[in-house]
Design brief:
With 98 residues, the chain is an all-alpha fold. It has one domain. The chain is built from five helices and no strands. Helix 2 packs across helix 4.
């Protein structure tokens, strides 16, 4: 847990976190996914985990944090999958001597 505490945002990171939060929420807004909030999510989690996640994300409420987390799953760009799929593959025409 001490390592996790070391990763709490600095003021500069908090600004970046807030910008990311706003960008992600704006993107789901453009997709029409921030209207009609009728579903409810409940669960029990470690309060320290909640505190750290809220601080890291820059979220103000539990609802905003949950929306941000779900939005990140929905708008994930597939980079990790593409990176793993390309592992060990180099274009045969690539000049490695240059």
């Amino acid at each position: 847990m001490e390592d996790a505490m070391a990763n709490i945002d600095t003021p500069e990171q908090s600004e970046a976190s807030r910008a990311r939060l706003e960008a992600v929420l704006a993107q789901i807004g453009e997709m029409g996914l921030s209207r009609d909030k009728g579903a409810r999510v409940t669960g029990r989690i470690n309060p320290k985990l909640l505190e750290l996640a809220r601080a890291r994300a820059g979220a103000m409420s539990d609802s905003q944090l949950i929306e941000f987390a779900l939005a990140n799953i929905v708008i994930e760009d597939g980079f990790a999958d593409a990176f793993m799929a390309a592992r060990g593959k180099v274009d045969p025409g690539l000049d490695l001597e240059a």
